[in-house]
């Protein structure tokens, strides 16, 4: 990833923007939120060439540690500066552990959503268009099975079987992607 600008751009759009948004929602000024996010990305960049991924851990745990460290250092630096009156309330909220945990949970949700979207894209290419439509109409749009069966001119049992099969395939792909993530981190250089 260190030598692939497109991969870094995608990584930033997936994770960096979440860090910035979270910091802004909790009172950091735009520049400070960007500093924290840039610090996280710089740490990842610096360690990418020599990064040795522990297969027993998942990438999100590593990312969690980097984000937590960057935030802790920012907080320490902030506390050593003089703050304008009234400016400490928002920062004090940031220093609370539940708020930091909210960022980590948000990053994990972003990671999970990225895996889900990748899995859905892969599975969609592997199934018949009507099978995918049955899945989307039932599972995503939450339309009644009888309506979906009538709309797609399928037997109702076939509609439910299609949804179940697609859901299982998506779960299998997500599991495979998570296992691949545990074996080869996206931070490894080629």
Structural summary, described in words:
The protein is an all-alpha fold and 190 residues long. The protein has one domain. It contains 8 helices and no strands. It has helices spanning 5-25, 30-48, 59-80, 88-95, 97-126, 129-140, 145-152, 156-183. Helix 1 runs antiparallel to helix 2, helix 3 (59-80) runs antiparallel to helix 5 and helix 6 (129-140) packs antiparallel against helix 7 (145-152). The N and C termini lie close together (8 Å).
Output the radius of gyration: 21 Å
Number of helices: 8
Q: Based on CA inertia axes, which overall geometry fits?
A: elongated
Report the sheet with the most strands, covering strand number, pairing sense and barrel closure: none
Number of domain units: 1
Give the overall pLDDT as a whole number: 75
What gap, in angstroms, lies between the N and C termini?
8 Å
Uncertain parts? 183-190
Structural class: mainly alpha
- The tally of strands reads 0
> What is the helix fraction of residues, given as a range?
over 70%
What letter string, H or E per element, gives the SSE order?
HHHHHHHH
Name the beta content range. Answer: under 5%
